[in-house]
Amino acid sequence: MEDFAKQLSHYSGWVLLILLGLVLVLCVILAKLWIDLNRTRKKFAEILNSGSSQNVEEMLLSHLKERQELRNQLETMDDRVVTLERKLQRSKRHLGLVRYDAFPDIGGNQSFTLAVYDDNGDGAILSSIIGRADNKVYGKTLTNGKTGHTLTEEEEQAIFEAVKGSNKGSEPA
């Protein structure tokens, strides 16, 4: 131990210089940590005092309540979408129209056949035949894309046009 004390006293200048350097490095590290701490305090104070007198707990509760309200609105909208999709399947939205001359002596394609049906193939076929002195209208029902009546060439063409114009759904006969 005496040897160590002699050597320490012999190199005391260098030891003191090294310790002084370590103290300076530690002071620089301490100053940087102090600056970082002040920045963090300022950011935290901004968050806590961001334009309202609410504390963080009140802000979180407010956000949770708003989120729950949005979730409820989304569920309501989902229910409405399901209802609308169900109604849309039953809406008569597939149409096919064919105009033609029913009689050779009457021109102008004034007679027509109209096919109207929904995604399930339920609907009707309306035919209007124009003559010189009269007009006759015929209706045939479509159920699951089929009818119990014989179809004319124009009625089949109207159904084909309705099927061609639809993007999905069952195709009637």
Order of helices and strands: HHHEEEEH
What is the strand arrangement across the widest sheet? 1-2-3-4
**Secondary structure tally: strands:** 4
Sheet/helix structural class = alpha+beta
Approximately how much helix is present in the residues? Answer: 40-55%
Structural features:
single chain; 173 residues; alpha+beta; four-stranded antiparallel sheet; 4 helices; 4 strands; 54% helix
Note the topology.
Layout: H1 2-10, H2 12-48, H3 56-90, E1 94-100, E2 111-117, E3 123-130, E4 135-142, H4 153-165
Antiparallel strand pairs: 1-2, 2-3, 3-4
Describe this structure in words.
With 173 residues, the chain is of the alpha+beta class. It has a domain at 92-165. It has helices at 2-10, 12-48, 56-90, 153-165; strands spanning 94-100, 111-117, 123-130, 135-142. A four-stranded antiparallel β-sheet has the order 1-2-3-4. The longest helix has 37 residues, at 12-48. The protein is rod-shaped.
Tell me briefly what this model is.
It contains 4 helices and 4 strands. With 173 residues, the chain is α+β, with helices and mostly antiparallel strands.
